[in-house]
Request: fold
Amino acid sequence: MINSREHIFLADLFRNSEEFSALNSEESFSIINELVYLYFLKVPIVAKDINNLLVEVFFEILSKNESDFLDFLISNQEENFESDLFNSLKENKYEALILKIDEKQLLVKALQQLERENLRTKFKELDENEADFLNESEIKSAFIQLERKALKEKFSELDKNESSNNRIANASFSHHATSDSNSFSEHSSSNKKSFSVFNLLKYAAILIAIILPFYFINNWNANKNQVSKKNHPKEKEKIDSIISNKINKSIPEEIIDIKLEKILQANVKVIEKESFGFSSKDKNISLEISVLDFEEAHQKLKKLEALIKKKGVNFEKHKTQLKELNKKIKLHSNRYIFDLEKEKCKLYIDSKFHKENGSESKIYFLEDGNSKNYYLKTLDYYNLNSSNKLEKLNLINDIDIIEKLDLLEE
Amino acid sequence: MQKIIPNKISDSELIELILESSSNIDILYLKHKNYCLNFMRKMNNDSDLIQDIYHDAIITLYEKIISGNFVLSASIQTYLNSICRNQLLNRNKKNAMHVVHNDDYDESIKDWIDDEIENINDNKLSATINALEKIKGLGGKCYEILKRFYYENHSMDKIAKDLEYTNADNVKNQKSRCFKKLNQEAFEIFNKLND
Reply:
């Protein structure tokens, strides 16, 4: 028989069932036992021994209260469940089914699973309850209190600052007033002189304050100029400024052409021309030279030289002219003069000449009979002197030369 | 450093400034202070009292402004005068005869600081306040995020912009973490208070 707790629970569960309440307790308990057993063991209900109507009622009610019913079972000890319910069932004709241990284990597992799920749900609810420990209005209220306190402190601070500023202002005003009054009385007692001295001092101070910055600025500029004059000649200064603007920029060929042409026209006589019948391949080499890549050009000229030599060019023939040229333009080491050719190339090379003069450098001179375009690279620099002659200056690189030429034109 | 108060700032501009940044409350406070205090001095000479009342009046107005649904029916000065006058009347009924009657206040304005909040002696509220103070003391942006969200009613976008977060979603996540932290702290403090 089921115990009293089960009885109460089940009675409660079925209390709304008119059909069930019509039965006496013994009958109802018996039916319930069977129904519960069948329900949990998932055994198809055989209704021949029980009232069909009651079965329907049972399942209807159970479907509405399943969770309650399961809770009830979970909350009871398994032993009780087994002893009361199962023992009672053993007495009736379903005994054979009860002894199916596997089925019973299934039931226990199902109950365990149910309980685990219930516990998880419960923990989740606990978590949620904990998260809801504070609601929005509670946080707002806390903030209001905190911020009110903070604001009041802030206002007090502002009041303090304000009164402190006022005190300073008052003190300054009173000091000003006192000194004014003193100077006034001084003025009254010691006639106009003291007033004028006071004012003079005041104006002098103002004037000094105005003039001093200008003095320092002028002085600073003067010093700066002096230093720069000392260290850099005007010419160099200008070159520097031009170089700084133009450095790393490619040198426009036309500028070089014009300047050098001017120099050469003024100082160099046209050298005797010698024509070479370059092949198209050679001509290409010669044209490539004009890009002002002097190092590369030097190498290519060497090749040209070898080529010319191979062709049996008589360099001795031009020796005198080259010597003349050397005197006039005072060529020094690493100097190359090229003539950019389009159709014809004329090349004057004197390697021996320099060797004879104790120099190992070579002179290359290309000239076009129609248009004279000269390119110059040198580590030396030549300036036109007052007598319109080239004189050597010590400058550093190609850019210097080009920029210097700009200056010369001015 | 003391704020420079623009002379010609309008009431609506001032409200905008406060909504933009709570630090601009300084402008509100200093701009109306002298007038309000002088207004109250006609009724009461207790400088401490009138100063306290002025503080509360500014707080009342500030809380109204940040609540987001504040509509100014009169000028800010009139609003503050009215609050101050009402409060002074409450505290100083005996001297009601000295109450000024002029256009500097609006009798229909009945707003006042909600004392109930301040007078709550609730362990939960205390725990929350303590937890917030603890979070503030720890540094970081948690307090600012929670304050701007719950107290100043700023949007996530605005908080993201003001506190230099990449986007509002980041603030939202951070706010969620901060809330959990606050919740946990408050819960622990609350339990200790009840032990």
